[in-house]
Design brief:
Length: 271
DNA sequence: AGGATTTGACCGAT
DNA sequence: ATCGGTCAAATCCT
């Protein structure tokens, strides 16, 4: 279980690399937006940049949290997989319950971080597996897992809920890191420019999205600005994270993030 | 037909 | 007992 000493350093380098890439993409995007004449010709380029930026966030978070996530990955790798008593149901009523005691575990110590954004899109492929009404919340919470959970044992999940005070915004809590590889099938769910939309889980049909250019610009500026802020801790307890509180917000057109990690991993202070 | 979503039940934590 | 997270059958969608 002991992790090597140099691993945090390697992760730090990787994280910085990811952030630099994201920053470069943001700069390109900004340039694109400052040159409207090129903008129409390169709409897909802009989308691509946005995707890259989002992925940069995701990858960075994965890298930063990977060094103390082995146990989590192991836990998620051996899925419950109860033996399927495959009987075609004879009625619409729920079949007699199987004994599901101990059939799943909660990821109490998984890394979590929260992102608030007008879109739930993040470049990963997710599969919805549940929705719950939450006490004192007007909006239900939706539960997603990585589509490669069984494919590659990826244990990443996320929870999406509309913001109470701003229903246009979605608060997405990511739990666990992606251990899957994105290569090959099931590409990210970002559509081409003709069908780009910023819509949520249950999108109202044909709602006109905001001008993507404005949002890209905001995103680019938010990413590029040095006061981008990340807050880390653990969602499960009130233990404030000892490692780091980069308590600035990526605040641009409502984009901001609130990242939660637990204190078990050393976080580079110099980022 | 096969994959994705919906939704009520089950289960662990508090 | 209650709440929130997950499971899995039923249903929907492509």
């Amino acid at each position: 279980m002991a992790t090597t000493d140099h691993k945090p350093r390697i992760n730090k380098i990787k994280a910085i690399k990811e952030l630099v890439e994201g920053q470069e993409c943001a700069s390109k995007l900004q340039f694109l937006l400052h040159n409207p004449s090129q903008q129409h010709a390169s709409a897909s380029v802009g989308e691509d940049l946005v995707l890259k930026i989002l992925k940069s966030f995701s990858q960075t978070l994965s890298v930063l949290s990977s060094s103390d996530s082995e146990s989590f990955m192991e836990a998620s790798a051996n899925s419950p997989d109860d033996s399927p008593s495959d009987e075609s149901s004879e009625s619409r009523k729920r079949a007699p319950p199987k004994d599901r005691r101990g059939c799943y575990k909660r990821k109490r110590n998984a890394q979590t971080w929260t992102v608030v954004s007008p879109t739930t899109e993040d470049g990963h492929a997710w599969r919805k597996y549940g929705q719950k009404a939450i006490l004192n919340s007007k909006h239900p919470r939706s539960y997603f897992r990585c589509t490669r959970k069984y494919d590659q044992g990826c244990g990443a999940t996320k929870q999406v809920q509309r913001k109470e005070d701003d229903p246009q915004m979605y608060q997405t809590t990511y739990i666990g890191v992606h251990t899957c590889k994105e290569t090959g099938k099931a590409p990210p769910i970002v559509p081409d420019s003709s069908s780009w939309d910023w819509e949520p889980i249950n999108p109202p049909k044909q709602q006109e999205p905001e001008d993507p250019a404005v949002m890209w610009k905001d995103l680019a500026m938010g990413f590029g600005s040095s006061d981008a802020a990340i807050k880390m801790g653990d969602i499960d307890d009130e233990v404030s994270c000892k490692s780091l509180e980069m308590d600035s917000m990526v605040r641009s057109a409502g984009f901001y993030s609130n990242f939660h990690f637990d204190e078990s991993d050393e976080f580079p202070q110099g980022l």
